[in-house]
Amino acid sequence: MNKEQALAVLKNKDKQIVKLNHILAILEWDQDTVMPLYASEERGEQSALLSSLVHKMSTSSEIQESLDVLDGCDFESDIDNALVRYWKKELGRSLCLPNKFVEDFSKAKNSAHDSWLRARAEGDFSIYEKDLDKILSFAKEKMSLFSKVGSNSSRDLYDVALDVFEEGLDTKTVDLLFDDLEKTIHCLMDKLQDIEVDDSFLFSKYDENKLHSFCLSVIDRMGFDHNRGIVGITAHPYTTTLGVDDHRISTRYSDDGLFDPIGSIVHETGHALYEMCASKEEPIRGTSLGTGVSMGIHESQSRFWENIMARSKAFWSYQYPYLQENIDSLKNVPLDLFVRAINKSKPSAIRVNADELTYNLHIILRYRIEKELFNGTLGVHDLPERWNELSQDIIRYKVKNDKEGVLQDVHWSMGEFGYFPTYAIGNIYSASFYSSMCKDLGGNGAVDSLLSSGDYSRITEWQSDNIWKCGATYSPSVLLDRVTHSKVDAEPFKEYLVTKFSDLYLN
């Protein structure tokens, strides 16, 4: 076959695989929301079967033969070149993984997710320990297999894991970024530690239904399309795509603080808007490119909305009166006091509830633990103790129990080692994107005026034109350079944090 025929074959197989992955996502969503407890074992078998089918199709002779023909070809379309590039990398990884390994890993993840839920509910790490140890072994083996592909051959296993979630990322880069960021954050924390901020009104009882209604009105203004997405309630907020026109976000109202569920749903909507736009855009719709390019870029979009937008005074100058109508405890709380309260920085236990400043320390903690787990200096059995030790050193918080410590996150039960750093990398990206957006839209004041008006369309149009519509066409580094004309750099984020917290509490 010629290159046009080979490209057509590749595109057809790619769309079939995307559909299968969407079906897998449906099973996972169902498991997290409504699936009965006793269905867990069979669900694991179902997921394993589908995972096996995806793996077989991803390594089929049709894909291999088409890529052989396309090797070295250069197309006029960036999209065609990106799809070939994606499948060269995907095929290399898939061929490394025996089908039995894929099935067994899928079953192990299902079991680990179940034991994590039980351990979390009972606050007992031992319930989860064996399954987590098995997941870690699978994850290491997977990265070891990946390390045999292309340029990965000389890389440490954890560098390979980082590259899975953020192409091109490695420990050398992350160490420099995180060490620098940690110093800046600790310096700010030292300056803020004696500042008294009253946030007691954020922890008063509220009507969950009224708050949920308010949250839905916020994401409506952000552009969430309810004809293409729904909102569910789960133990752990997340976003998933079940189809090109089926995007699901989840939130929770089990946390003590009033702002936590607001921040959570705004965060997840940032993810969803990216997916909604990318999956709608022709010709990447329904392809492996019709999604976010990386977890770091994805997190930049969610953290941008959760923090830079939804913790700003400009945002709340429009939204606050509507929140006051729904939350009795806020009736007599002035806007300025509310804004100071939702930005209050204090060491805390739970990552998803952490303030904008200290959140990054939660990620640095997890990053250092993952490195130790992968290099063998830390075993799973000693994980709770090490977690608690690093929490005091990095976050400056003394962990009271495993539920608010090592058991708080779902990611490791899913084998997603290397994922956590992308949250802080996303924060770093978000500040760089924000800086570029402000320049394009007329400055910080112009963006604030848009937020104050309640009309976010110019903001989301900028995001769509510059980031979302591209889907996964460009690598993270190329996309960053196209939008900001720079490489990954912590300076804009550090400057943003120093300016924001100084203006709020120190000036």
Overview of the structural elements:
With 507 residues, this protein is mainly alpha-helical. The chain folds into 2 domains: 3-154, no CATH class; 174-349 and 419-506, Neurolysin, domain 3 (Orthogonal Bundle). The chain is 64% helix and 3% strand. The protein is built from 20 helices and 3 strands. It has helices at 3-33, 40-58, 61-70, 78-96, 99-122, 126-146, 157-165, 171-192, 208-222, 259-280, 295-309, 313-326, 335-342, 359-375, 383-395, 421-441, 444-453, 457-466, 476-484, 491-506, and strands at 229-233, 239-243, 246-251. Helix 1 packs across helix 3, helix 14 crosses helix 16 and helix 16 (421-441) crosses helix 17. The longest helix is centred in the first third of the chain and has 31 residues, at 3-33. The termini are far apart. The relative contact order is 0.12.
> What's the level 1 CATH class of the largest domain?
Mainly Alpha
Question: Element order, helices and strands?
Answer: HHHHHHHHHEEEHHHHHHHHHHH
Oligomeric state as shown: single chain
Number of helices: 20
- What is the CATH T-level topology of the largest domain? Neurolysin, domain 3
Structural class comes to mainly alpha
Number of domains: 2
Number of strands: 3
Report the mean per-residue pLDDT as an integer. Answer: 95
Q: Which percent band covers the strand fraction? A: under 5%
Shape: globular
Question: Major β-sheet, in short?
Answer: 3 strands, mixed
The portion of residues assigned to helices is: 55-70%
